[in-house]
């Protein structure tokens, strides 16, 4: 979908006018292309202690980034990483945060601010907990202040997780890269040291077989393309009636098409059969298929309620059961489910949809432990306003308003959701367990 | 001196199939060409089996109603598809047996070791049928193009008359008799005394069986939608014997026997395309493809309908006995019998001939009747009356459908179930084949 | 010249064209009332040697009749080649019947050997067997074709002059009533069927060309040439007729154009029988056989 407003305020006479009028001026976001350097400029790593050193070393020696440990005057940073894992009292935040503050005006377009901190646990000393929880508030607020397509996101380490754990490294790279263009104001918790770093960061899914439901169009099509780009062999699933588009997608991503209604009883078995017979394994299942049947609850019909729950959550539960029972879903398996900001914050007219999407969040949290023994994970991605055929049907004025209701002041693209799915599906994300990662440009509503 | 390594004969396998839903003439595919539809069917097959960029041994397909610009129809469709551009292709034309003939000939090449993989296919459109200019205009235009000077050109042009400009649409009548296929079948129907009720029952079963298969998702991995058509457009799941009985006869009106053939128990004009993926055991294993069926043997036949010796569509009645004799089989050895429903009565006259002592003795040279086929084994997922009949695409539809059914049957009950496939064709032709579960 | 006298052969150097003969026939029709005609056949045999057809003419004929275009002359095409000479016999002043308005009622052809394009053909024609018929007078026009001195083709065309009476008893030739058999095909004959056959046969008798021309002779519409329908039937028999065969046809009723004629061409004994009839009424247009010579 074209965001005409975004184009207008970023070009020519209309751009000047918009600036004079003080209209919101969303910046065009840079998106990932294979071969792109991780960062377009130097990175500043702030924070006391060995964790910050470790991060700085990773960036400079591992990823070939020009790393500064102290802000250079007039430097234009592409990224600022605040390593706050070792704070013990809220006052410890002062120095690194204020040092970062001084660089923000010079932050490059599309710059990145990433905090690395630890989970505030119930048994922490009060001051420790305050310092750690304080980072959340800091990051969420900072993200809202960033302009020019810059984003702020945080990585939160549970107890016992080292800063060089694969998922911390993977999340850091994801947040720094353009893959996370529309992820903003989010804190992602890493629960364990599980996972493995890829040999090739451009093909983290090489050798993996991924199933994507609802792959014929929109976000599902983008997920299939992105997983394939990252090296996966993709089984593209959609309802038989969408078969023509599905075939086109499958042929583009050089995968296979499986025409299947995910609500049928044997959907899980047929997915397994196809993936195993045709590709010899099954590693990733992305539950993307979903429908909306919006109606105020007062006017809700059984058909609208039941069909949404059937497709959006019941089918996922049944397929997951089949996967778990098969004994074939055991090689660091990944389940990534599509939730929605509606499922978190609620949305008028979407009680059925939000119930299903809230259900997804609960499902992944409870499914993840069942996969832990195999190094597996289940996580959810919650898209905000994404420019798709579905959102294109929203009335024009409502759509314009919905697009601006986030820190990036624009709708996301299907590929933004897909990049996040690809990250959670990657071997590096093995320590991210049962979480929900929002792809919403830091939508004003909800967490 | 090199030692020859000429391969020995081996199995040829049906590995899968794909077709687009068949649409009624003038429907959703009204503006789709044969090449468009064949490409779509190929692309769906490629997508289902992950054959993108694959160099297939050969693709053979054809169309009955073919425009002269489509002289290389199949190759052009391959070039437009997701297959490797290095995939060779050729066109085949054997009227309504085209699709089955491509399966037979490619299977034979696989059996001989000439090919490891192949795709057979067929397509037809009656909506986008080629329209030719009249013979007189054509000759005049050809003379015009050969003319060397203005005088010759004027002379050639002067031969053109206004009435010559009327286009000549392809006819479905037999060139040698002038009778349409329906009129021919009406003669055979009358000859064998096939009743209206029996024909309507065949049509009813065809619709209900095809509808049940769609409902059960049987075609989910055999059909890829096209142009918004997601199910066979001719299918009438709600038809009933009562409704069929109300239709007025359309063929055989001039005969002194009652006319029994209606639009309901005859196939309508249909657009569509089908493909079948074939390969050797080795190729299937390399590509992680599950063999569905083995193409065992085939036999073509033809009858002298021109001089009224046999009905136009009766060739399979002769070909099948020869085929089965060669393979040491009887009709009872088949779990499935697929007889293309050109007309309901085509199926019934074929069965009647096989059940006739006199036909068996006098025409087949047997001691008595050839045999019987009970209806539970016959066209188990419906056939052309319900699905429609885009001429060259029908063979592929039948082979893919029954191969999947054979595979499922073997998984369910074990053994090696067999299927007999019979397709009648214009020109008094017939092509029959034996498949068995792989 | 009297009937039964020794045949007198008149050589005609070049095969006449039908276009040149019809005006003569017209003049004869106009003048025949002025002088009472002799009721005896002339003993003259007309002969033209070295007749050679062109490939273009042959191909046009073959395509129109549904024969494969090859160098072998269809029996009907040989008839076309010989017909002007037979017609010449009929337009001669000594021919005792009025040629215009005579009805072609039967035709018997024996093909003794294949005739190949390019072979010079010696054609002779004569009339024989003038005889009474219950509705007039019949006569046979016999044409013979020799190649290299060998008889290869022989045709006997029987014509009826309605209302012309001669002495003698008309034989009782009541035919068995025609019962339409099961058809094997049908001919859809367009309104230009007569004009198209006239173009390849040269027989531009007005009754075949237009409704107006036909009305002058009492037909409501143009009628198909009998030999066109007989030749279609022969083509329908196809290659099974062999190299040498007989081809006999009786014309029962003219085919008014346009028309759809139901036909049956089927094996019968050691040859083929054919019939063409009106699809609706079941009335026969022609019946005949193709059999071994």
What kind of assembly state do the chains in view correspond to? heterotrimer
Q: Can you tell me the CATH architecture of the domain at 181-216 and 297-437 in chain B?
A: 3-Layer(aba) Sandwich
Give the CA-based shape of chain A: globular
Task: Write down the CATH topology of the largest domain in chain A.
Answer: Rossmann fold
Q: Give the strand order of the largest sheet of chain A, numbering strands 1, 2, ... along the chain.
A: 9-8-7-10-11-12-13
Please state the overall shape of chain B, judged from the principal axes of the Cα atoms: globular
Mean pLDDT of chain A: 93
Structural class of chain B: alpha+beta
List descriptors:
heterotrimer, A: 447 residues, alpha/beta, Rossmann fold, 2 domains, seven-stranded parallel β-sheet, six-stranded parallel β-sheet, 13 strands, globular, C: 293 residues, alpha+beta, Thiol Ester Dehydrase, Chain A, eleven-stranded mixed β-sheet, 7 helices, 11 strands, disordered N terminus
Concise overview:
Chain A has 447 residues and is an alpha/beta fold.
Q: Could you explain how this protein is built, in words?
A:
The complex is a heterotrimer of chains A (447), B (438) and C (293). Chain A has helices spanning 4-8, 12-21, 49-62, 94-104, 126-145, 166-176, 218-229, 243-252, 267-279, 302-326, 341-345, 351-371, 389-392, 396-404, 414-425, and strands spanning 43-46, 67-68, 79-83, 112-118, 151-157, 187-190, 209-213, 233-238, 256-259, 284-287, 334-338, 377-383, 436-439. Chain A has 447 residues and is an alpha/beta fold. Chain A has 2 domains: 31-190, Rossmann fold (3-Layer(aba) Sandwich); 209-439, Rossmann fold (3-Layer(aba) Sandwich), CATH 3.40.50. In chain A, strand 4, helix 5 and strand 5 form a beta-alpha-beta unit. In chain A, helix 7 (218-229) crosses helix 15 (414-425), helix 9 (267-279) packs across helix 10 and helix 10 packs parallel to helix 12 (351-371). The longest helix of chain A has 25 residues, at 302-326. The mean pLDDT of chain A is 93. With 438 residues, chain B is of the alpha+beta class. Chain B has a domain at 181-216 and 297-437: Thiolase/Chalcone synthase (Peroxisomal Thiolase, Chain A, domain 1). Chain B has 14 helices and 12 strands. In chain B, strands 1, 2, 3, 4, 5, 8, 9, 10, 11 and 12 form a 10-stranded mixed β-sheet that branches. A two-stranded antiparallel sheet of chain B has the order 6-7. In chain B, strand 3, helix 2 and strand 4 form a beta-alpha-beta unit. In chain B, helix 1 packs across helix 2. Chain B is globular, with a radius of gyration of 22 Å. In chain B, 57% of the residues are buried. With 293 residues, chain C is an alpha+beta fold. Chain C has 2 domains: 1-168, Roll (Thiol Ester Dehydrase, Chain A); 175-293, Hotdog Thioesterase (Thiol Ester Dehydrase, Chain A). Chain C contains 7 helices and 11 strands. An 11-stranded mixed β-sheet of chain C has the order 1-2-4-5-6-3-8-11-10-9-7, with helices on one face. The longest helix of chain C is centred in the first third of the chain and has 17 residues, at 75-91. Chain C is globular and about 45 Å long. Mean pLDDT of chain C is 90; it is low at 1-6.
